[in-house]
Sequence to fold (228 residues):
Amino acid sequence: SQKIEQNSEALNIQEGKTATLTCNYTNYSPAYLQWYRQDPGRGPVFLLLIRENEKEKRKERLKVTFDTTLKQSLFHITASQPADSATYLCALRANFGNEKLTFGTGTRLTIIP
Amino acid sequence: GAGVSQSPRYKVAKRGQDVALRCDPISGHVSLFWYQQALGQGPEFLTYFQNEAQLDKSGLPSDRFFAERPEGSVSTLKIQRTQQEDSAVYLCASSVTGTLVYGYTFGSGTRLTVV
Fold:
């Protein structure tokens, strides 16, 4: 069966360090993968998209990698700040022609001052 | 409007009651999605519209769930004869169709509690 796993339910990182979150998937051949941030009581907010033919994408302090051989994406936040504390979700679009995204369960990140 | 608007923000329903949840997408966004999010879980797909056409309703958990978007803008998710397992946050999202380069824009959701 198809599955998307984010390997940590919760992650605590010291302020200033790099936070690395993992998204693994099975039985998908995704067209691309997206990362979202969700704060309590709010809907997810889109951060980054990476396509199947891209290895890495950056945006300010954020970096995403995508390894279709390992079926894994890594999401990095460098120079982390307490304001980065939130739940981070990865999402896959499996097929062209259907815009449906399938989400992972999320990783709750806490940046400790 | 500037964002996706959902109402009501909170809804408490007695078991067996019917509820209707509303979503106002971003003007010009052709695609509209409904997701269900249980506590501590990621959003689960329910259904998807392109304009007024419902292209995928594979995620609707039972025939008690019904969604419509009659004029291709505002959408309503209706749940008939609510059950306790329907308690969740219902999220609506919209996007520019044909590309997801900019991702979905989500509303803040409707938290439904069935008592």
The mean pLDDT of chain A is 91. Chain A touches chain B through 25 residues (CB under 8 Å). The first strand of chain A starts at residue 3 and ends at 6.
